[in-house]
Amino acid sequence: MKIAVLIKQVPDSDDVRMDPETGTMVREGMGAIVNPLDLNALQAALDLRTLAGEAGEVTAIAMGPRNADEALRECLSMGADSGFLLTDRAFAGSDTWATAKVLAAALEISGPYDLVIAGEKATDGETGQVGPETAVILGIPFSTYVSGLSLVEGGIEVLRTVEEGIQRQKLPFPCLLTVLHALNEPGMPTLAGKKRARRAEIRSAGIDGIQLSPEETGLMGSATRVVKISYPTISRKTEMFDEKRTEEGIERLVAVLRDLAVL
Known about the structure:
Layout: E1 2-7, E2 9-11, E3 17-18, E4 25-26, E5 32-34, H1 36-52, E6 57-63, H2 69-78, E7 82-86, H3 96-110, E8 115-119, H4 130-138, E9 142-152, E10 155-162, E11 165-172, E12 175-179, H5 191-199, E13 203-205, H6 246-259
Parallel strand pairs: 1-6, 1-8, 6-7, 7-13, 8-12, 9-12
Antiparallel strand pairs: 2-5, 3-4, 9-10, 10-11
Helix pairs in contact: 2-5, 3-4
């Protein structure tokens, strides 16, 4: 079983800066981590590889700047077999659709894969669109909000956690899944894994290597545009009650909590 895991490197900070001209995130000078839900996706792939035995293989794929290979090396240290980095200035500013086109092209070139797994969403975007869009471009079935899975004959059966409850779904191979944190608990890198990851060669490709044109990626290939950026403001209205008005203050606090449906 060949499994691809879609990985994204995201800012390790709440202090996110945006470029007002392009509406894209400024990533220079910020610490970075592997998107947390992508680690759940990686753990799911590693667990399935164990079930597949010697026939199992896990490839971590990421799109980003050159230093995104650090995220792939972390995946290797946790047990992934190989990493594939898509890096090119032409990819900068890609929206979810342009990103999906790049990932789909990379999957076709480096595959074929029986299964593609990704985190449900990324902390720096919260859209949950890239996984399904990638599946649509590839023309394969997909399932989202996956909180449980098991191998069945010819495919995989998943549990989806949705507002109505739990849905059970069976998909044939090849297919794509986006997963939730409830699926599993990601493992930790091992010392041997870190040594192997440090020495490993990370395959990389630019726009020419995946046979896309500049018009299909980056800002030019994006179907959406950020036309305005606004920052939320936090304001507080404080009411003060001194020791002579303690009972009045308590009554006021209870009234506010009732209005908020806390009490």
